[in-house]
Amino acid sequence: MRKHLLAIFFIFGLLSTHAQIAPENHSIFFKPVFGTHINSDQGHLFQDQTIGFDAAYFKDIEQNKDHWIKALGAKSYGLGFIFRDISRLKGAKDTSANSFGQVYGLVAQIDFELFKLGKAKFNFTPGIGLSLTNKYFGNHPKNRFLGSPVNEAIKADLGMELPVGKYTSLLAGFGFLHISNGGLTVPNGGLNTGNIYLGLKLNNPKNPTEEKRSTYVPLQKNSIEISAGLGARGVPQQSDKHLFKSGLYAGYNFYLNDIIVLKAGADAVYYYTVYNPDDYAGTYQNYGTSYDRWRTGLSVGAEINLWRITVGAQVGKYLHYNRYKEDATWYWTFGPTYNITSRLGIQAKTYMHFAQADYVNWGLVYRF
């Protein structure tokens, strides 16, 4: 539950980052969707069907003069509601047939304009939030993809917006939705769905007022960064038990501009419970299974600053990892940071092996 409360904090943190801007223009989106799952190991790719809709409320920010808004083409931000009926999914080789239900979610989103062709605008709209499903491993044991009722939701839409009047635009495009709990409970294969959509955007156009630049300014120099946190991975098929880990990081940040920072550093993960062959079910952690208390590595990557929200990703090579699975020699991390100040932030970093989440590390970041 702590993980989900912190995730809610990130959602409202993203929505509150522009509270000082108070833009006048706003809009409502409604997009019916039709799609299918795109998990690579499922035997009915592009045959099963998902249906649903997205609805969202957005506020314009393009009149604001912040560097990242102009440079990235950010046009608006808002809160979206998602609904998916995934009951038709048969799962992997029919083992999960009739084990899926419905998904309901709330996501914080930002709308970026990529380019225009005549009146048509082509936009990219990512979002992150929480979702709730009524069928998961706990009440439908054949469902090995969704291990808990509450999950994170990551979505992205790539589409066209075509104005057909002063107050109305037509929408069409493609969307992606990922549902999982980051390994907090196991099994948790995660569910990936793709869709097409057609929809409407209802506008409330007004002449924008002159806006001042936001008071928050990111750290505008190279810096040393340290972070520490705590997270947990679930014990297979035991939703009430967890294996805790702490993630540590120390590195150097190369400041390019207010938007992009390059990163290089060292990662370390401490295991409070190591793998015990005599207790396979209670200590096995898939690619994250370690015989030792520590694993360490070096990583490089970058982060993008979106006002107080920083989204970063790094890929690394292990220096020491006494692992159970020999092919887990590389790792990667990603996640958002909510910056309380330009130096201090709250971070949710997901440690990954291949396409599998090891665990989510919740902690603090400090730059100096």
Tell me how many strands there are.
16
Q: Average pLDDT across residues? A: 89
Task: Name the structural class.
Answer: mainly beta
Spatial shape = flat
**Residue windows where pLDDT falls under 50 for at least 5 positions:** 1-6, 16-23
N- to C-terminal distance? 32 Å
Order of helices and strands: HEEHEEEEEEEEEHEEEEE
Helix content: under 10%
What does this structure look like?
- The chain has 368 residues and is mainly beta.
- It has three helices and 16 strands.
- The chain has helices at residues 2-16, 67-72, 280-283; strands at residues 26-37, 50-60, 74-85, 102-117, 120-133, 150-163, 168-180, 191-203, 223-235, 238-255, 260-271, 294-306, 309-320, 330-339, 344-353, 356-367.
- The strands form two sheets. Strands 1-2-3-4-5-6-7-8 form an eight-stranded antiparallel beta barrel.
- The two termini are 32 Å apart.
- Mean pLDDT is 89; it is low at 1-6 and 16-23.
